[in-house]
């Protein structure tokens, strides 16, 4: 066969094969439009104990820029990173302080919490991992040049935590334009708390955790840049409705949805047009949707 004819038939065959073979996931995602941002939920918490510096390091090792965390307050006024309002599930507090049930964060001093092991519950390899202070968490993230989605957790338990959190952020250099312009969002399930953060420091971008009715979105748009709903609660029309508003910084309101830990769910919400996916398995989600 003539060389050109061989090339032509080879091309034809490859073309047929290309039609039959599925694209690898990242390529398929790349062909469908912009990628959602991937956010490591409580750090890369499928692979390291949640809300610890090890989980931040793991996110960095996976090349994941955005990390989510949960901030609460100790009895003596320190801000620490922990999800539950009790220390029971993710530390050895029951062994160290057996008489202090129900082991609420707000009833322990920072020095007491610093004694706890926050890694053994997850895996023996993480024995000795500590509950980080917000300051330690920020320092580690700065070292990795990461971006923070900071959740004020249970703010009703800690009156004034909005101002105190902003103070730590300021002291650590996280309220300069380089950070507020694209490396920091403060979110909460409490609309009052988000409103307070916006009023105290309008430069900070904010997010409301939940799925408010579309009719209420105009009022949220006055103080929240993001509406961040659970992934089971959203649809393409809902995401489009949020996108129809501009937040307090004059940009289109965004949707960052949680907690999406498998490829199929990630592709589903990416198809809805979400701006971000908050996940314990950032590598799995990134492989599914790109980003
Ligand atoms: O960032 C969203 C997500 O963290 C909200 O739920 O309970 O994991 O803090 P939760
Ligand atoms: Ca959270």
Description:
By secondary structure, this protein is α/β, with parallel strands linked by helices. The protein has one domain: Alpha-Beta Barrel (TIM Barrel), CATH 3.20.20.190. Helices cover 37% and strands 14% of the residues. The chain contains 13 helices and 9 strands. The chain has an 8-stranded parallel beta barrel, surrounded by 6 helices. Helix 9 links the parallel strand 5 and strand 6. The radius of gyration is 22 Å and the shape is globular. The protein starts with a helix and ends with a helix. 41% of the residues are buried.
**Whole-number radius of gyration?**
22 Å
How many helices does DSSP assign?
13
Average of pLDDT: 91
| CATH topology group | TIM Barrel
Write down how many β-strands occur, each being a DSSP E stretch of 2 or more residues. 9
How much of the polypeptide forms β-strand, as a percent range? 5-15%
